[in-house]
Amino acid sequence: MEQEQTRSILATEIAERVPEVEDRRLSQAIAKTRSWLLSKQHEDGHWCAELEGDTILESEYILAMHFLGRSGREKVRKAASYLRQRQLPDGGWAIYPGGSPDLSASVKAYFVLKLVGDDPQAPHMEKAREVILSMGGLDACNSFTKIYLSIFGQYEWSKSPGVPPELILFPKWYPFFNIYDMSSWSRAIVIPLSIIWAKKPRCPVPEHAAIKELRVRPRGLVLPHWSRASLMHEGWSLFFRVLDRIHKVFERAHLVPLRRLAVRRCEEWVLQRLHKSDGLGAIFPPIVNTLIALRSLGYAEDHPTVVEQIHELEKLELEEEETLKVQPCFSPVWDTALSVNALAEGDNLEARGQIHQAVEWLLDHEVQAPGDWRVRNPEGPVGGWYFEYANEFYPDCDDTAQLLTALSKIDPPGGETGWRLEAATKRALGWLLSMQNRDGGWASFDKGCNKEYLTYIPFADHNAMIDPSTTDITARALEALARHGYDLQAPEVQRGVDFVRRDQEADGSWYGRWGCNYLYGTWLALCGLEAIGEDLSQEYIRRAAAWIRSCQNPDGGWGELPDSYEDAGKKGQGPSTAAQTAWAIMGLIAAGEVEGDAVARGVDYLLSTQQPDGGWTDAWWTGTGFPEVFYLNYHYYAIYFPLQALETYKKRLQFLQRSATGFVGPLFS
User: Fold this and answer.
1) Fold (CATH) for 54-214+239-326
2) Which residues in the chain are classed under CATH 1.50.10.20?
3) Catalytic (active-site) positions
4) pTM for this prediction
5) Which terminal Cβ of the chain has fewer Cβ within 10 Å, N or C?
């Protein structure tokens, strides 16, 4: 009785704190954002925003055009113009706004600007050169950059890390290594790259474009600071460097009897995965590698497969009057899933028709055939969704879980669409459950892809060689399972919760693999745990909520820059963004703090920074591709996440005011 009275008092206090005028302001903001988002829906029912990456994309695009004999095109001039615009005042190029110069990005940009004719004595080139030399020059670049430079005669093949095509010949059961021990995106990059390595194509550049001035003389032996971790690192690194040198010795002696077979197998592997896909892996790097590999194998420029892949590359172009940008891929399934999820969080009667149209589109993009995931999961049923317009070989747990959550919120459509939705949901649930790893967590594209020693292979310095379980995807899976009738009694759920608990940082936060960074991971962890029915009073959840509160900026918002991936001391720090503020608000609400001052201030930040058209624009990037290597700017993150946060806030307040019973488990629509 006393507890009920306390809850009643709490509900009254909340009602008094949110006067009618504030409720009207909140409702108006939600209505404007819903209208904005609905207006951006494509005629066929889906959403797809611009997906922005760093200038490595434009640099490699120009190099690919030169390799294909198209360097004189107007589009190349425009891409070079965009590169100049993105140069930092100190001369280098960063891989995210607010970041420091990145060596490999800067070397590629400098090289292609020389290639298109920029004067090396021009001020912008001199400054770029100084920055590059100060960071170590060509020899300090990452592996993929060195291989690209080797293609164009600017770096020795012998010094580039070897990518032997014979890797594909290791049987799937071989325990130490086979190509399915690599993450799906690494396979898609590496297999065509291994053809390039075997053929070692040479594409000449004019003498004026040579970049020998970017060499740095060795400074002598520098002894590292040894620790247990560094000893393990150096041990594996030395082991793989020795293998790399042995491989190169055998190559020079022409003692690679399986080379022809290996190259043919790699070629077949690539060609098989071009079906029902917008290019290999439907992402930029494998598409470019595939084009160079096919041309190196002797495919003519007018060969249908080459023409098709050039077309896939051209689809990624964003051409404007004076510049050209290149997207890393398209994100339609992801954007549509998150748009539906946000719109369905509130009253969706006015948008029901458009939401059902989105459902139709999503059902048309369900995976219908097994892909690479079947190697590690031979018994799993076919189902789920991928990220792009067409990528049949690579459904992922993140998209599938998010869609299962979003689709559970909508009013079920009738007729054939309803039957299709029910069947697709059943298949997706079965596939998602079958993808759970032994440690209880979920990864993105593969199961059991966690051999950490492979990250020490010389060509694996893109920081994404493997695909282990992560909290953000595991939490999404838990929320999806909760939405479809699972609870803490289910063994799959308990194993997932145990994984999330083990993965928590000492300060209460969680690392975010696919969004920046600890704010992303902590938000999703709390939402997944609350949805599945975890006791919110537990110390580890209270610690997580306290951590989010501790990161709030004076303006009421939250922000975190990608530099927290390199320095955990910067976690939760950065200028406020609409997306990250929304994540923090939803994380605190999931932890039971809808009535807290931090949430109220966060909501006020969103209301105060909303633009007249109902949207927000984040100047800082909040998406992650490969931590420390490649980041993303999802242009709709600043729309559907704030909308979801405001809808959730409004709904939870109304629930408390109506029932005065507090939170007793998850609150679903």
Assistant:
1) Glycosyltransferase (1.50.10)
2) 1-39+506-664, 54-214+239-326
3) 398
4) 0.92
5) N
